[in-house]
Amino acid sequence: MIRAIKGTRDIFGIETKKWRYVEQKIIEYARKYNYGEIRIPTFERTQLYLRGIGGETDIVNKEMYTFTDKGGRSITLRPEGTAGVVRAYIENKMYADKSLKKLFYMGSMYRQERPQKGRYREFRQFGIENIGSKEPLADAEVISFAYNLYKELGLKSIKVEINSIGCRTCRKNYIRALKDYLKPHYEMLCDNCKRRFDTNTLRILDCKNPGCKKITEKAPSTTEYLCDDCKEHFNEVLHYLDVRKIPYSVNNRLVRGLDYYTRTVFEVTTDRLGSQNAVAAGGRYDYLIGMFHSEDIPAVGFAGGMDRLILLMEEEGLFDAMDEEKPDIFIVAVSNDVRDYVIKIAESLREQGFSVETDLSMSSMKSQMRRAGKLNVDNVLIIGPDEIDKGVLTYKNMKKHSQKEIDIKELENFKKILE
Ligand code: HAM
Q1: Are 27 and 105 within one domain?
Q2: With contact defined as beta carbons under 8 Å apart, do 153 and 40 qualify?
Q3: Which of 34, 194, 236, 261 is close enough to 283 for a disulfide, judged by CB 3.0 to 4.6 Å?
Q4: Residue 387, ligand 1, Cβ within 6 A
């Protein structure tokens, strides 16, 4: 038996119905906020992620699915969508008309993390990228999109946490202050954080190790070190969130696992999924485009984990009323000599828009009835040779437990029969 690879999973049955429901809502929401869909490749040159996400991040260091293809190129399965969208934006010269570009995407991402509930090696994200505005209005729209979408989906347990990690200049001052603060505690940091001390100091704030957490509790906060421009930017983002009535809490410990962020970072979290508490996350990345293009173009975006979103919706009982998909009508052939007739009727009902199931195994009438029962179908049509001769058939309404003979002509408008 060949089994699926650890950290991947099959989604089928009623699960797919949940996924389609959520996907549809995301598409509707993107439309409401005027984000156009972009579909980008699932693999790119490794270099894109190395430079884009950052060589000292966990994603690049430990989690990427990287391989050399037969042409000797280093290829990586996308661990996230932003770098690919930025590559597409530049390659397709979307900057040419200097206007704001608002893009959304959905699809599988790949990270070799330790699988657990809510954390997979192939997982699905949707995301939006708002490219071309440096204004706090854009940050606030992106955060509102996330919050409002999740509220509309019915989630009650979500919270928005927000922080500013400053720009290139003021972040340097902060990192210096953080290092000064951490130096006396260096020996007590976990091995990972000892390494991060020089390579990615900010990430120490995000360490889950209880010892490191304790040490960073009293660390200086990023917002104390913001330059005037960054401070003003942050305050305005908060102002526009207030205008939009988006509840949030400022979390000065919030830093993100990807290197491209500047200024605003945020997460949408829940307390109902254990340690995998982030259902969406994002922020501003004003320098990422400049790493691959001749000029910096400011941008802000976020991505939501769809597997976690669906888990959380289940947890909050939001799918409790959803039932398994079933056909509208089952047609029973009383004997094999009416099969041709059944085919024609089934197709005519499908043309009218109904979902129709028939028997494909030459089963007995009894076993067809059993199958209709198992499928929990509401409407059953029974067709036998004698009835065909008379131009009639039997219609059984399974919900009302009623049965009547109807004229075959009435099938031309089956909706009427249902009324
Ligand atoms: P991220 O925080 O790495 O950000 O991922 C965003 C979301 O994807 C997480 O909050 C989580 O819900 C989900 N996620 C991440 N890893 C896994 C996993 N292994 N299993 C299940 N779900 C997972 C980004 O990816 C950025 N590109 C977001 C962004 C867009 N920033 C600006 N624009």
Answers
A1: yes
A2: no
A3: 261
A4: no
